[in-house]
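FYI - complex with adenine, inputs then prediction.
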Amino acid sequence: MDQKRIGIIGAMEEEVARFKEQMTDTVISKRAGMEFIQGMLCGRDTVVVRSGIGKVNAAVCAQILCDVYEVDYIMNTGVAGSLNAEIEIGDIVISEEALQHDMDATGFGYAPGVIPRMETSVFPADPRLVTLAAEACAKANPDIRVFRGRILSGDQFISDKNTKERLAENFRGLCTEMEGGAVAQTAYLNGVPYLILRAISDKADDSASMAYDTFEEMAIRHTVRLVTELLPRL
Ligand code: ADE
């Protein structure tokens, strides 16, 4: 059987800890200060890694997955702040595309979020992975709502109403986080299919910091269940 290799990136230890515990036949190596754990997870050849927080860490991590581990897919999993009144804490967002909301060359006349001199700034996720993830989520988390659409990323924890409204209005994203857009751009540059899976930990408004502390663990449980159901389908 043609066994694909899947790279799984989480920014924080708590986002990847459950995967690491479940892995077998592991080989661990370090690059760029990150620990890459290659082995079997849910019957699939995977490389699980904690990238650290933010777009630079995420991009470096994704590039290593491409160059060193020659992964066939990259998945980025973790939590996010909701930008849409319909999307509640605990709900899941599956990326159809991702963009970086803090890219700003408006001084040269570019629209917010546009990366100058690139043919696109909105990076589409792999449609097959999106469909499989939605199916897996319905099975793994039957009581949780699942949304598909645009995910925004920036090197900012969004925790005020005005910034949230500006992002929602300018970019029409469903949620915001701090790595997915960088993973998406790196995947795009390397021609590797990618997917971002995020559970909502907060509403990216003035309540965000407190909500995050309260709901992070519950949100991560939802993504872990989803990934565990998704992997055997790949
Ligand atoms: N990750 C989880 N919540 C977030 C928020 N409000 N802003 C950025 N990243 C997040």
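The pocket of adenine is lined by residues 79-81, 157-159, 176-178, 201-202, 204, 208, 212 (CB under 6 Å). The longest strand covers residues 73-82.
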